[in-house]
């Protein structure tokens, strides 16, 4: 109770959210990166109550929570460091799992973590290089700039934040929520409507043996994750193609093969605002579609297809409210299915999650989000019945 009171007090005194900056031709940056003030603070507390009411592993209800604390510094305004920005981001999560009840592989709550812990999530410096490029270095969440859509951010399943084809990879995952790594990222504006970025990241974020620690451990064995993405940005349209690969050796799924290099993949997506021509004109209908693949020698998910539709301002007098429906289909590779058959487990070809959600903006600092998910073939387990998950998310803060 005392911890909850302190969190609420912190949220009340926190400054407003970090402002958005414009990408080429109006497509906005992440809201967490730039501000029109020298120093900007942000605090958001997110609470999920999720119930598996039918199917899956077992029925039950879980409470998940997440605290985000951010500090954005415009070093030019604050100390005269021209073209530089500093960003610090800490998180706390309680480590409770709803997916253990469902048995899904795509993580149906995007604030779920394996263990409860407070972590330093991001800490980087970004420096402009000329008028059209920048370099960023530090502890970095690749999903803040790579493989991200505005429409997908409405939904609670993790696959719409970053594709499950990427999220499954690496010895401790890639550098995404909740464990991130050191990285260097370069970005270049290519003409009026094109933007490219490339990043090199530590191949094993954190310490797999001590998941609660914020750890930085570099070694030749861990290798690196290299990822690149090219975006076409015009008004309310964003299209992108990306590719990624690890430099380290990985153990194959089938025990008959030796460890080898080549763990890689690619993805493509398109997002379009069907009503309105500006990225900051949120009213109306928007949608997106994404497809990605991963190396089936090392990864259970061979391909992922997801997408959905989001309508903003459907209810008269509630112009900021959003309603959406989406699907996320993770298809399992033949090698993974063979490896599970050797362990006497039958795996179906894919897991599909259909999600419907409504986000009510009650005040500028409070939103309430009822959510419904139907999970077909959770985890691909042929013996599990389809699961029905209902939930409610509350966000406090800005």
Brief sketch in words of this structure:
The chain has five helices and 16 strands. The chain is mainly beta and 398 residues long.
Descriptive overview:
- It is built from 5 helices and 16 strands.
- It has 398 residues and is mainly beta.
- It has one domain: Porin.
- The radius of gyration is 21 Å and the shape is globular.
- It starts with a helix and ends with a strand.
- The N terminus is likely disordered.
- Give the total of domains: 1
Biggest β-sheet: strands ordered side by side in the sheet: 1-2-3-4-5-6-7-8-9-10-11-12-13-14-15-16
- What is the helix/strand order? HEEHEHEEHEEEEEEEEHEEE
**SSE class:** mainly beta
Radius of gyration: 21 Å
CATH topology, which one? Porin
Fold topology:
Layout: H1 2-13, E1 39-54, E2 60-74, H2 75-79, E3 84-93, H3 99-102, E4 117-129, E5 133-140, H4 164-167, E6 181-190, E7 194-202, E8 224-234, E9 237-246, E10 264-273, E11 284-294, E12 301-312, E13 322-332, H5 334-342, E14 350-363, E15 366-376, E16 387-397
Antiparallel strand pairs: 1-2, 1-16, 2-3, 3-4, 4-5, 5-6, 6-7, 7-8, 8-9, 9-10, 10-11, 11-12, 12-13, 13-14, 14-15, 15-16
List keywords for this structure.
globular, 398 residues, disordered N terminus, 5 helices, mainly beta, Porin
């Amino acid at each position: 109770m005392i911890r909850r009171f302190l969190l609420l007090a912190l949220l009340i005194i926190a400054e407003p959210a970090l402002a958005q900056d414009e990408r080429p031709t109006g497509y906005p940056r992440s809201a967490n990166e730039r501000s029109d003030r020298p120093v900007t603070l942000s605090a958001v507390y997110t609470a999920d109550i999720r119930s598996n009411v039918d199917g899956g592993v077992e029925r039950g209800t879980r409470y998940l929570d997440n605290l985000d604390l951010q500090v954005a510094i415009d070093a030019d305004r604050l100390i005269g460091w021209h073209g530089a920005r500093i960003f610090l981001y800490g998180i706390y999560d309680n480590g409770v799992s709803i997916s253990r009840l469902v048995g899904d592989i795509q993580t149906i709550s995007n604030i779920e973590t394996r263990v409860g812990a407070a972590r330093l999530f991001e800490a980087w410096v970004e420096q402009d290089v000329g008028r059209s490029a920048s370099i960023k270095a530090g502890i970095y969440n690749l999903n803040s700039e790579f493989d991200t859509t505005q429409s997908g951010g409405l939904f609670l399943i993790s696959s719409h934040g970053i594709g499950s084809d990427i999220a499954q990879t690496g010895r401790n995952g890639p550098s995404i929520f909740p464990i991130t790594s050191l990285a260097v990222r370069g970005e270049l504006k290519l003409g009026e409507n094109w933007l490219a970025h490339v990043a090199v990241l530590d191949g094993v974020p954190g310490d797999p043996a001590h998941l609660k620690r914020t750890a930085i451990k570099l070694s030749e064995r861990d290798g690196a994750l290299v990822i690149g993405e090219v975006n076409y940005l015009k008004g309310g349209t964003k299209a992108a193609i990306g590719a990624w690969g690890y430099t380290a050796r990985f153990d194959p799924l089938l025990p008959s093969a030796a460890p080898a290099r080549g763990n890689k993949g690619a993805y493509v997506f398109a997002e379009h605002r069907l009503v309105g021509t500006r990225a900051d004109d949120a009213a109306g209908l928007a949608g997106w579609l994404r497809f990605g693949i991963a190396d089936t020698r090392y990864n259970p998910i061979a391909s992922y297809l997801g997408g959905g539709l989001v309508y903003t301002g459907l209810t008269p007098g509630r112009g900021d409210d959003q309603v959406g429906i989406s699907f996320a289909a993770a298809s399992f590779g033949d090698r993974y299915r063979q490896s599970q058959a050797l362990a006497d487990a039958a795996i179906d070809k894919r897991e599909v999650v259909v999600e419907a959600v409504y986000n009510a903006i009650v005040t500028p600092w409070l939103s309430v989000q009822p959510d419904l998910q139907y999970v077909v073939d959770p985890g691909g387990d042929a013996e599990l019945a389809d699961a029905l998950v209902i939930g409610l998310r509350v966000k406090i803060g800005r």
